[in-house]
Write a structure and sequence with these properties.
By secondary structure, the protein is mainly beta. The chain has helices at residues 29-32, 97-101; strands spanning 2-4, 10-14, 21-24, 36-40, 44-48, 54-56, 63-67, 74-79, 87-91, 105-108. The structure holds zinc ion (ZN).
């Protein structure tokens, strides 16, 4: 699956199509309105054509929330060395509307942990 931010600077290629998306209600995901699909790090390649993405770290600094430095789209998050899991979540809001509409959505109660 290939996804890009709005301006095309950030390009994401995944080895497998997402099978579901997760809506998390934690303080950051609900503000982003992200629809996450989770991947192992080796199954995703991310290229920034013009400028590197920028990221936001907060709280325990276990997750970098990356956005395009040009168009501002939230593209993915990746866990840092402080986190005990190593994964990438791709924001499926970058997908075409019909692709996103066909994916089952589950809710993660991230607000309570
Ligand atoms: Zn962009």
């Amino acid at each position: 699956m290939n996804l890009t931010c709005h301006c095309g600077n950030v390009e994401i290629e995944t080895q497998f199509d997402a099978k579901e998306v997760v809506h998390c209600n934690c303080s950051i995901c609900r503000r982003y309105a992200a629809a996450w699909a989770y991947y192992e790090v080796g199954d995703v390649s991310i290229r920034c054509h013009k400028e590197a993405s920028v990221y936001y770290l907060w709280g325990d600094k276990e997750v970098e929330f990356h956005r395009c430095n040009q168009c501002g789209c939230l593209t993915h998050y990746k866990t840092t060395a402080k986190c005990d899991v190593n994964k990438i979540a791709v924001n499926m809001r970058l997908a075409e509307p019909d692709v996103l509409a066909d994916l089952p959505m589950s809710r993660l109660d991230g607000a309570t942990f």
